[in-house]
Amino acid sequence: MLAGIVLLLAAAAAGFFIYRNTPRQKVQTVAFSEFLHEVDAGQIASITVRQNLLDLTRHDGVHVRTMAPAGYIAANPTFVPLLEQHHVTLDVAASNSPAPYGYLAAFGVFAIFGALGFLIYRVTTGRVPSIEKRAGRMDPRAPVVTFADVAGVDEAKDELKGVVDFLREPGRFAAVGGRVPKGVLLVGPPGTGKTLLARSIAGEAGVPFLFASGSDFVEMYAGVGAARIRKLFKDARRHPSCIVFIDELDAVGRSRGGHSLSHEEREQTLNQLLVEMDGFAPNISIVVIAATNRQDILDQALLRPGRFDRQVHVGCPDVKGREAILRVHSRKITLSPGVDMRSIARGTPGFSGAELANLVNEAALIAVQAGRHAVSDQDLDAARDKVMMGAERRSLAMTEHERVTCAYHEAGHAVVASLLPEADPLHKVTIIPRGRALGVTMQLPEADRHTYSRAYLDGQLAILMGGRIAEEVFLEQMTSGAGNDIERATDIARRMVCDFGMSPLGPLAYKGQAGDPWQRESNAISAATAERVDAEVHAIVMHGYRVARRLIEHNREAVKRLAEELLVSESVDADGVRAILAGAMLEAAPTEAVH
Ligand code: ADP
Ligand code: MG
Ligand code: ZN
Predict the structure, then answer these.
(1) Which residues line ligand 1 (CB under 6 A)?
(2) CA–CA gap between residue 350 and residue 427 (Å, rounded)
């Protein structure tokens, strides 16, 4: 027993030692496309390749890292000659030590003991170890961004100009009598540029940027989160002026009074944050910016005057915004002359800034892989499809029967979609597997949609049913391939009944059933109502099924031709579908009322 304790303590000491001394070195990473540009521009001195990880040294001695697409180096016979042409030293590192598993196992055992010991150390001493260092990271090498790097959120930028002015000249600001901004809350969905905006304020004003994430403060042990908050603001007060950015504020800022286990800890952390924000000396110009996508769950105390009393909404960009964001990101790549950014922007409704940035990067990769030096319209189009639907998996082996099933399934979706007047226009049908799907029928809304009409949703249900029905009608089979369609259709129908008031049950919100353990809402529905809800959901889905079935049975020729074309050429675009449908005799969409 005693020996066991001694062993544990030794492991604890070792574990803690390792914990403290592991260098947390961070190498800056660059996009692969960026790397290829740097090679072209002759900025790269040497490369060490470790599988698809590339460690780069630039001529100015800076080390950076990038990741090649899987299999890129093996599949590109031009890659090594390209490096030679630019006199880049190429080195290949062994991917692992000679006996990787032995080391790994030894390390694993060691790590487990270490972790165990560390845990005991923490619990028994009750002292807060130095992990509070984690909060308030400042990365001086991070590139400075300014408002010019953020696009499509002009209103937010206008509102934030005041903060920049204040940080630039706090004295003058006070003299004019402007109310000093203390806390700004950026509210909006993920990927819309909240972090980027916060960084750009620091960049515009030329002040340090201290970054922390709400989840850094959420710990099991009481007091750790609060200590980290204290540390963060202590660091901040070292600068005459700076920005403290707290990402995911909702992780700490949830309203109090919940019954979760870590509730006491969270309350302490939140209180500490409030105390720090209230306690700024008037001569210090620190602005706290926080970001969240769940403003509704924040504790009201956070939103009071003197705290996060300024809320700036950062939404998904509209067409103009998307075009602007695409332009910002394509500054870094070479575009072929005549690339039409406006049409790409029009074809990407609902894309966030992050997705658009991703699109541009993918387009550059596609161009590079094809051995071209400039990005064309086609590359951007292909990148859009890739971001939207997942990458093509051409290697997935499908049996001939699966291909036929898939072709009829997608043809069913596509024919129903093109015959319904309310549906979004068809963009493309393919039986090239993408992501998890074996085939895809893609529609593109003509404009950004914010609300959905009853007719649109009914149409959506019919389109979803079209795949399964085509299989039934032409191949006399049912497959699991329609599983996802069915799930989505059921979700839509349920929301139509429970959230949108689109059934005879009337415009009421039907929340979960009373008695569910996770259900605490007061307007939970009774078992009897739940049965009626289920019946209405069923009726709505079956209506969609009947509409689609009739369309497909009346237009067998069109479905068959489209499926055969898909089997030959794998994908058919909107014009192709139109041509095929024009050749077959079409019958207009029959109409039927649900009730
Ligand atoms: P959020 O914090 O809202 O989740 P981020 O600021 O982390 O979003 O955005 C991630 C990336 O997406 C950014 O680094 C940037 O490259 C791109 N991005 C997002 N929004 C915009 C925008 N409005 N303008 C330009 N780039 C954007
Ligand atoms: Mg963010
Ligand atoms: Zn389907």
Answers:
(1) 150-153, 190-196, 291, 325, 328, 353-354, 357
(2) 16
